[in-house]
Amino acid sequence: MLYTFDESIQYCNSIGGKPVSISSYSERDAISGFTNTTTLQPWIASRRNKTTGNFYNLDGSYFYSYMWTTNEPSVNGDCVTYKGVNPPGQQVTQCYQLQPAFCKQTPALCNSAVLGGPNTWSGTFQSPGYPNQYYNNLRCQYLINSPNNTYITITFYPFLIEEWYDAVEVYEGNSTSYYDFIGTVSSYNLARGFESSRNVMNVLFRTNYAVTDKGWLATWKAKKNMPTIYQYGSNGTMVSPNYPSNYDSYDEQVYQISVAYGMQVNMTIDDFRTETRFDYLSIYNSTLQSNSTLVATLSGASVAPFNYISPRNYMSLKFVSDGSLQYKGWHMYWSIC
């Protein structure tokens, strides 16, 4: 069957699919493989913005302007077909032309899901078939929702895919738009952890038609939007959230203290009660919080009094609680020395 551009969009939607846009080199190569034996050029879900004159993908993905065939884009229309024979590439076509529709459908092998919810703070999910093997020609989406006033962190480990051709992409909100793109997971570097700015994150896993691998496992957590508490000067007091009432579940509060150059911070905790092991206060000898700057991790009921003097004119703390038991927390005062 042959369709106009708009009819091709309607046809793809009617069979539960989507019209094809080219959003990666692997998709371009796959489309070339499908179309290089036909003289009829299928529609691509891209068209010209008549106001700006620029072309865009209907699904919001990034439009690769260097995937045109020779002497394109021309002024011979506002819609796009794909030329599979040499030289392959996108070609401008009048939108009323009758061309084949080119649709893509998510295979039943996908384990796409809506994850989380208003009362869910963490979870895991994995590629289809993990840990044995994922499949070719997938386009799986995982929409994560977390409680209000939180943001989402996600880590992928293990992570074994066909690099450059298969991809895991992370987006803000319920989107796969270029403008909401957070990052691409990679096994070649440390780009395996990401965070959103709000409480909705979308993960897209797409594979091409060739090599597959074991896949990946993703672990996500919701974190409260709790701005860092800063204190300066010569003395001050810091407390856990809500002190002396019980702190909340899933708190992650960071504290920073900075004093005049050449001085040190002398801090004393005079009251402390948290759930042992699971709710804790970490103390760092720097504003950079890492294992190398960690001084102590305090938890339980037998902590106070606790005293510490920083080696420099700054230090920091981080208080973390989980979702089970809550207590009154802690009280600390500090001064310069």
UniProtKB/TrEMBL annotation:
Classification via Pfam families: CUB, Lectin_C
Domain C-type lectin: start-end pairs: 1-104
Claim: tRNA processing is one of the keywords in the record: no
InterPro entries in the record: C-type_lectin-like, C-type_lectin-like/link_sf, CTDL_fold, CUB_dom, Sperma_CUB_dom_sf
PROSITE patterns the UniProt entry points to: C_TYPE_LECTIN_2 (PS50041), CUB (PS01180)
Classification via Gene3D superfamilies: Mannose-Binding Protein A, subunit A, Spermadhesin, CUB domain
CDD domains: CLECT, CUB
Alphabetical keyword list: Disulfide bond, Repeat
SUPFAM superfamilies reported in the protein's UniProt record: C-type lectin-like, Spermadhesin, CUB domain
Domain CUB: 110-223, 225-337
UniProt-recorded name of the protein: CUB domain-containing protein
